[in-house]
Fold this protein.
Amino acid sequence: MTISVPDTDVAIIGAGVVGCAMARRFALEGARVVVIEAGTDILSGASKANSAILHTGFDAPPGSLELHCMQQAYDEYLSIRNEMNLPLLETGAMVAAWTAQEEERLPDLLAQAQENGVSDARLISRAEVLAREPHLAGDVRAALLVPREHVVDPWSAPLAYATQAQALGARFMFAAPLQSARRDGGTWHLATAAGELRARTVVNCAGLYGDHIEAMLTGASRFEIRPRKGQFVVFDKAASALLRTILLPVPSDRTKGIVLTRTAFGNLLVGPTAEEQEARDRPDVTRPELDALIARAGEMVPGLRDMPVTAVYAGLRPASERKEYRVHADADLGYYCAGGIRSTGLTASLGIARHVFDLWAQAYSASGPAVAAPPVVKVPNLAEHRPRDWQRPGHDGILCHCEMVTTREVEAALQSPLPPGDFGGLRRRTRCAMGRCQGFNCLARIASLCEGRLRAPMVSEDAP
Ligand SMILES: Cc1cc2nc3c(=O)[nH]c(=O)nc-3n(C[C@H](O)[C@H](O)[C@H](O)COP(=O)(O)OP(=O)(O)OC[C@H]3O[C@@H](n4cnc5c(N)ncnc54)[C@H](O)[C@@H]3O)c2cc1C
């Protein structure tokens, strides 16, 4: 099938969190936007599986673009969150030292936080750590407290960005992997599996395939994606009573390390690992690594030793051969790249979008004026610390009892302006089948509701 999309200002390749934020920013600025996504829904790549922390940038490389984008995005997230109904679990974080060597590194981390403008970070003693977190193992020595590191819902935020972009006229093409591209005059001719289109410019937000897309468009790639897997264990909801603050390790040069944090959905999460791998598609979970995560969690919070596990999952960071984001612009070619957005992209996406738009606007202008009064988009609340749909009357019954998902919530997602294209997308929009039984009890009823309404056939292991 070939559909022809009218000429646009910008074709965005990839509907991960960066592509969704990019679409919103360009649409807000009056540009005509098309988003081309290989998967059957938004968040088909790296963005579907992360730790969901909204970072302050306290430990980012000073002066880096990453730091700039994170901090700008942090402020923007706070400014739009009430209007869009985006949750924020105000946890704060502690970088905990468990050995003398780690404790010696804390003052350097504090100095870095201060250099990065995170002026409310401070060192706290073992006694204060344990007063804040009484369930922590007693051998913790001290910590750096970062009060404004928080937890978000990693799926509702990009959904809100994409939905607002669409309300502003952006068009989303799913199951549309970019297959070839040709530049002719000042125009890109793009061929996808779902049709062809022409665009003045292209923004590469293809995550784990960003280098391939750059090579396809420009003949060679300036970076190489080196996927880095992160595995996670999700403990039962009862476990979340054991910890309030995000518990971060003293970071190494390679990774932020294993984090213990509550989720917005009322669970406790431990992970991620940092494992280099060749494959760029679905990451596997592996028993020894999961066992090691569970063991480490139990060492830090002994009450977790007997706590049941609800789920396990893995994500792939679109890391590259260098530590920094790979953002660059070829204005003459009409090519912009937001590549190598490795471990902070959920936080930084709004800032990356603004930065790339600013680069683009130096050479191009949008076809319309910036939108003065953007359409108000509100996503449904899935966070456990705020009222959920099942607590309101008229919800037409609970469909998923583990996560207390109502029939009304599933119907609303299926009828929403940007409905899920696959079962994973439905789970991310409602949390159905994401609890203790992982869909064992509710899958048949969900399947009958979804019949003929998803782009892709329903596959039960389509998680997270
Ligand atoms: C384990 C882990 C933990 C993390 N923790 C955090 C955290 O706590 N806080 C935080 O801020 N960030 C975190 N991140 C980082 C964040 O998740 C990533 O930075 C972010 O998801 C990258 O988004 P992206 O949009 O660049 O890429 P992606 O999400 O991969 O999006 C790229 C999209 O492009 C599509 N695509 C690929 N090729 C094509 C093609 N040929 N045609 C069309 N479409 C194509 C893909 O299907 C995909 O949907 C974490 C990441 C991982 C993996």
The first strand starts at residue 4 and ends at 13. The two ends are 30 Å apart (CA to CA). The longest helix spans residues 65-84. The mean pLDDT is 95.
